[in-house]
Design a protein that fits this description.
- It contains 15 helices and 14 strands.
- It has 393 residues and is α/β, with parallel strands linked by helices.
- A seven-stranded mixed sheet has the order 4-10-9-8-7-5-6, with helices on both faces. A four-stranded mixed sheet has the order 1-2-3-12. Strands 11-14-13 form a three-stranded antiparallel sheet, with helices on one face.
- It is globular.
Amino acid sequence: MDLFEKCYGYTEAKDAMRSGTYPYFIPMTENEGTECLFNGHRLIMCGSNNYLGLTTDPRVQQAAVEAVHRFGTSCTGSRFLNGTLEMHEQLEHELAEWLGKEAALVFSTGMQTNLGTISAVVTRKDVVLLDKDDHASIVDGARLSYGETRRFRHNDMADLERVLSSIADDKGKLVVVDGLFSMGGDLAPLPEIVPLCKKYGARLMVDDAHSIGVMGGGRGTAAQFGLTEQVDLIMSTFSKSFASLGGFIAGDEPIIHYIKHHARSLIFSASIPAGNAAAALAALRIMREEPEHSARVNAIGDRVRKELRAMGFNIGPSVSPIIPILIGDTPRTILAWKTLFDAGVFVNPVLSPAVPAGQEILRTSYMASHTDEQIDRALEIYRKVGKQLGLIS
């Protein structure tokens, strides 16, 4: 058996490329935040995680430029050895303060944050419990740990309790959930999860990659529910509201100190460059000092959800600026994506196995920097394409 036989036999993506229905790795000529340019075709960007619109904020850009001029383009080493700057530690201090936690630790990406954190704290005698809709980075972090992984149905508290109650008392338990789920746009029911964790002696970690900057006045899902002190670990990424690249975990100082000395994805990866750290720090300060950005993106989300529902689209339980449009099968989802793309709106088709078969969606998401006119135009295109394809009447 040739190891590469599977590679030579894989034709699905190339078939889609030849047919003009390949929706991935689209090379943009320009990306101005709310609009992008592909082969001279300008589109309204309704598929980005740039929720506060800060990637084009002059203050964030200038902070990154100044940091590059001062420190160069790379730290050329891991945080553990030569790759820690005072700026990294300042960013960690301000993140912890913003979230109401004792300490924070910056990783090179959000993916590496989950890989390193979960695999560090979950060991052979432990169990990690995951919502079935948790992000792939959480699933992979659990796989890398030496503990047992158990799953529970999405936001199903009876099923979570069933799983928790089946675990022996002498095992350590970590429940990990997305705070704001990246596909459905719905929130984890932390007011129900926290009491269950306490009842069964489990610790709780919330992945707030999509929630920091958006929910809870920008402080995330735990703050949204007034439960910051009850959530043991809060994770987020810089590649969304923070307009940069990297990630972090926040919690009690002894826990963060332990992760700092045991997370392989931190110890064996180069640290984020100064430009990325400076951009994230500038974005954090804007987030903290200008809450109107968070208010604006939520107002846009409220409007789009209301209008899409009124048109007849099925957008599920979304309560955020992440708004899925349920299509339900792969060919129609690809056709809807392509028709919207050609009409001038960029959205993301999400297909099985990223979602269960029969639950394929168009993932749409919005930014504080979208203008009312851009939202008007996007909604009109949704209406036109929806009727054209028979998605709405």
